[in-house]
Design brief:
The protein is mostly helical and 131 residues long. It has one domain. Helices cover 47% and strands 11% of the residues. The chain contains six helices and five strands. The strands form two sheets. A three-stranded mixed β-sheet has the order 1-2-5. Strands 3-4 form a two-stranded antiparallel ribbon. It is globular, with a radius of gyration of 14 Å. The mean pLDDT is 93.
Length: 131
């Protein structure tokens, strides 16, 4: 894998993931991606505005987009704004973590970034979290 394609809101999902997903296939896929990042922090990241590598097996995927695309775009925009990430390409996962770490570590309620996400209660259990 030369790079991981990522929607902006998946920054939040990866760093608050606690073993629960939409289904087993989705959970195994996100765990695999998290493992790739952990084992290779120098892997490149390309942010995309459609389904990414985490969405690959999501049951909400409809072609290249999500069945709830408007809500997902809003989450992506909130994450971009919250972490001041405007570019499409970040050299490495390590660089991303260093850039978002101070702000992420201060987060007390996932709703500030993700709104009323389905996984809000699970994510809030791990906050604040030093990544």
């Amino acid at each position: 894998m030369k790079e991981i394609k990522l929607r902006y809101h998946h920054i939040m999902c990866m760093h608050t993931y606690s073993g629960h997903g939409y289904n087993e296939r989705f959970s195994k896929n996100i765990e695999k991606i998290i493992k790739v990042f952990n084992e290779n922090p120098n892997i490149n990241i390309r942010f995309v505005d459609k389904c990414d590598d985490i969405c690959k097996v999501c049951p909400n995927r409809v072609g290249e987009y999500c069945s709830g695309e408007d809500s997902i775009r809003e989450k992506d925009n909130n994450v971009k704004k919250y972490f001041q990430l405007e570019r499409k390409f970040i050299d490495t996962y390590k660089e991303l973590v260093e850039e978002i770490k101070p702000t992420f570590s201060e987060l007390q309620d996932i709703s500030e970034v993700c709104g009323q996400c389905y996984f809000k209660k699970l994510c809030n259990k791990v906050l604040p979290k030093n990544i």
